[in-house]
C-alpha cells in the first residue's frame, strides 16, 4: 500500500450542504430556515434557558442559586464551657480532645470558641481561637497557643 492509495472508508466523508444557491439546488430561497420569524433571522432564536415566558427553573429553586466556596476551611468546634472537664494546669491538645470525645476526629482543624466561662487556668493548644475565647483563657490565668 502506498501513501497515494490511502482513502477514507466508503460513507465516512459527506458532501457539504450548500444552501442559498438557487431554487434548483433544493436548498435555495429560504436556505432551510422555513418562512419568516425569529428563527429565520440572523442571530435569532431563544436562549437555551428560556422557558417560553414561564418562571425559569433557576428562579423556582432559590436554594440552588449563589455559589459554594470550595476553599472554605471547615473546623471542628469546641466551646470553652466544654473544657470544664479538664483539671487545672492540664495541657489540652487536639489529640486530648479526641480522646475525651469532644472532637470526633483530627481530619478537621480544631477551633476554640468563647461560649461559656472558664474558672481554672488551662494551657490550650488548637489550630484557631476566637478573640473572646483567647481573652477568656488568658483572663483565667491560662495560655492559648496556636498550632
In short:
With 147 residues, the protein is α/β, with parallel strands linked by helices. It is built from 3 helices and 6 strands.
Explain how this protein is built.
Helices cover 14% and strands 14% of the residues. With 147 residues, it is an alpha/beta fold. The chain folds into two domains: 18-55, no CATH class; 76-146, Ribosomal Protein L15, Chain: K, domain 2. A three-stranded parallel beta sheet has the order 1-3-5. A three-stranded parallel beta sheet has the order 2-4-6. The protein starts with 56 loop residues before the first helix and ends with a strand. 12% of the residues are buried. The model has no long low-confidence stretch (mean pLDDT 93).
Keywords:
147 residues; alpha/beta; Ribosomal Protein L15, Chain: K, domain 2; 2 domains; three-stranded parallel sheet; 14% helix; 14% strand; elongated
Report helical residue fraction: 10-25%
Low-confidence regions: none
Order of helices and strands: HEEHEEEHE
Enter the CATH topology name of the largest domain: Ribosomal Protein L15, Chain: K, domain 2
CATH architecture of the largest domain: Ribosomal Protein L15, Chain: K, domain 2
Strands, total number: 6
Oligomer: single chain
Strand order of the largest sheet: 1-3-5
Overall outline: elongated
Question: Hey, roughly how much beta strand do the residues contain?
Answer: 5-15%
For the record, the CATH class of the largest domain is Alpha Beta
Helix count equals: 3
Average of pLDDT = 93
Number of domains: 2
- Tell me the distance between the termini: 71 Å
Name the structural class: alpha/beta
Radius of gyration: 35 Å
User: Biggest sheet: strands, sense, closure?
Assistant: 3 strands, parallel
Amino acid at each position: 500500500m502506498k501513501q497515494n492509495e490511502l482513502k477514507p472508508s466508503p460513507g465516512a466523508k459527506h458532501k457539504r450542504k450548500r444552501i442559498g444557491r438557487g431554487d434548483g439546488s433544493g436548498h435555495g430561497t429560504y436556505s432551510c430556515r422555513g418562512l419568516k420569524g425569529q428563527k429565520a433571522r440572523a442571530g435569532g432564536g431563544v436562549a437555551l434557558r428560556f422557558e417560553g415566558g414561564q418562571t425559569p427553573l433557576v428562579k423556582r429553586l432559590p436554594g440552588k442559586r449563589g455559589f459554594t466556596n470550595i476553599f472554605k476551611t471547615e473546623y471542628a468546634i469546641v466551646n470553652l464551657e466544654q473544657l470544664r472537664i479538664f483539671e487545672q494546669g492540664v495541657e489540652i491538645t487536639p489529640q486530648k480532645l479526641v480522646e475525651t470525645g469532644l472532637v470526633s476526629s483530627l481530619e478537621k482543624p480544631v477551633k476554640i470558641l468563647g461560649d461559656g466561662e472558664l474558672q481554672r487556668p488551662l494551657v490550650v493548644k488548637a489550630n484557631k481561637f476566637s478573640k473572646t475565647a483567647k481573652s477568656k483563657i488568658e483572663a483565667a490565668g491560662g495560655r492559648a497557643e496556636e498550632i
